[in-house]
Amino acid sequence: MLGTIRAFWNDQRGVAMILVAIMLPVLIGFALLAIDMSRANGLHNDLQKGVDALALATAAELDGRSDSIIRANLAKTTLLTNKTKFSTAGDHTLALADVTVTYLTGIPADDSIRLSAAGVDANGVNWASTDPKAVTFSLVTVNPSGLADGAGAFEAIFPASVVSGSNTFDIQPQAVAGFVQSICETVPIFMCNPFETTDPLTSKTIQQAFASGDTYSREFRILKVDSNPGPGNFGLLENGLTSIQEGMAKGTAGTCYSRTSLTTKTGVTLGQVNTGLNVRFDLYQGNLKNNTDLGYRPASNVRKGASKNSNCNKFDVATDGSALPLPDGTGYDSAKGMTLPIAANSFWTAYWAANHKNAAYPNLPAKTDPLKRNVPASRYDVYNYEIAAGIVGDKSKGPSNEVGTPSCYKGDLTKADPSRRLINMAIIDCKANQAKLNGHTAVRPDGYASVFINNPIQKVNPNDEDNPDGTGAEKAISLEIVDVDGGFANNTLVDKAFRNEAQLYR
Asked: Are 254 and 239 in contact (CB under 8 A)?
């Protein structure tokens, strides 16, 4: 009997079946886990793509305008009208109830800090806002399955209920996208904000000044930044150009600038800045003579008060009243670099009589005034009216007999463009950023403005006009502000010049 037991104990036949019987549940369990992990990973990836797309679509509308959140919500409802199915609970179609979309003014610098669906980070900072002009980020979070039908509810094949009491758990991916704005169609110079003061209670951004009507019909005069930069100054920006003159003439910096960061540059070559700008007035000075480049074309209206001694290469102002340029403003404040607004229609009497056959000024409306007030027309309004009314070709009084139609450009004059006397320019708070204006230092711009060049830029000494690219002192550049960027603007600059993009941050 003992031998039989010993023989049975030592008999290993069929032992594999026992091991298989023991390990089979484990092997099946691991297989189910592998399948579940693959399915969960696939569901997560699909949902992540969905929330990424939703975050990008909504963030692309957060451009600082008053209706940005309305448009973002419209993009949200449009995007989620789809038939893509998620989850394992009845092949659920992603719906608005499955996600929370929150608009943020910013995000934590540390990417490891997760935001709640409401936009509050782990440190208790609330980044959420309902101000359409302040939000620039869109946070999209898949809700827990208890809040909807469960787009992210995952039902496992592995019997997890044995351990946790439920075979279903949530997959909650999150995405953060932000609105990015850059400008490419701008000259590589900046203008100091003429409404900046050292007192926060009185200082205004360029957008605030525009919205309150403070910029309309004023003449702004800007000179190169000096040792004490402030209102009334301008400077150069880093650019992608081999010739500053080319950038000024064509109206591009050769690169795109971020809406939130610029780098200043030293070494403003004033002659190149001004000869480049003057091509808009049909003046081709220095090495620009006989130019046929389409980028150097003149404006449709180049009336500038030229004397009979002016020519295509040299500008001479008529001093006898036989031709008049767009008039200078009154009450010039050198501390702010600007004049008073045009006070009365009589401001235009002499200009109109000299250039339009002694006709009476027709009291034009202020078409580009952002407040739509009953005030005199700006220089830009009069310029546009002359083009629209077909009176650019009117001769001024003799002996000048100036007309506003260009004749010096050697290229295709049919390409003359009314908007050529408009340039886009960065505006910087020079008082607050004085230490950063010496060059090669990043600075955040106050904004961007579309400005109208009133008249050609001249040398202080008339004898220096024979050498326009030289170092002779320049007179100020005379401008009017026509529009600005941001939510308070007429949106002509934003619609035409800015490139709006949305990018994923998380």
From this structure: yes
CA distance 274 to 472: 12
Cβ atoms of 75 and 103 within 8 Å: the answer is: no
Residues whose CB falls within 8 Å of the CB of residue 483, separated by 6 or more in sequence, listed in order: 210, 368, 449, 450, 489, 490, 491, 492, 493
Average pLDDT for the chain: 80
Global confidence as pTM: 0.72
Grade residue 149 by pLDDT with cuts at 50, 70 and 90.
very low
Question: Which position has the token pair 């949902």?
Answer: 47
Rounded CA separation 244/241 (Å) = 6
Q: What is the pLDDT of residues 223-247, one digit of tens each?
A: 877 666 778 888 888 887 777 788 8
Quick one: which of 51, 49, 75, 48 has its CA closest to 61? 75
Same domain for 253 and 399, yes or no, is: yes
- 10 Å CB burial of residue 335 (0-12, 13-18, 19+) is exposed
One domain, residues 107 and 158: yes
Would 352 be classed as within a structural domain?
Answer: yes
In this structure, is residue 3 part of a structural domain?
Answer: no
Span 296-317, pLDDT tens digits: 899 999 999 999 988 888 888 9
Identify residue 43 by its one-letter amino acid code: L
Q: Minimal CA–CA distance to 470: which of 283, 311, 287?
A: 287
C-alpha angle 393-395-401 in degrees, rounded to nearest 5: 130
3 state SS of 31: helix
Say whether both 315 and 373 belong to one domain.
yes
- Distance from CA of residue 184 to its chain's centroid? 9
Burial class (CB in 10 A: 0-12, 13-18, 19+), 477: buried
Q: What is the DSSP letter of 328?
A: P
Helices (H), 295-439: 349-355, 379-388
Secondary structure letter of residue 209 according to DSSP: H
* CB-based contact 179:60 (threshold 8 Å): yes
**Which residues are CB-contacts of 123 (< 8 A; sequence separation ≥ 6)?**
108, 113
Domain-ending residue, one of 181, 207, 241: 181
Beta bridge partners of 257: 183
Q: Has residue 439 been placed in a domain? A: yes
Contacts by residues 327-336 (CB-CB < 8 Å, ≥ 24 positions apart): 327/351, 327/379, 328/219, 328/478, 329/218, 329/219, 332/219, 332/221, 334/232, 335/230, 335/231, 335/232, 336/194, 336/195, 336/231, 336/232
Contact 189, 252 (CB under 8 A): no
* Domain span holding position 253: 184-498
φ/ψ (deg, to 5) at 299: -75, 170
> Is the Cβ–Cβ distance between 236 and 274 less than 8 Å?
no
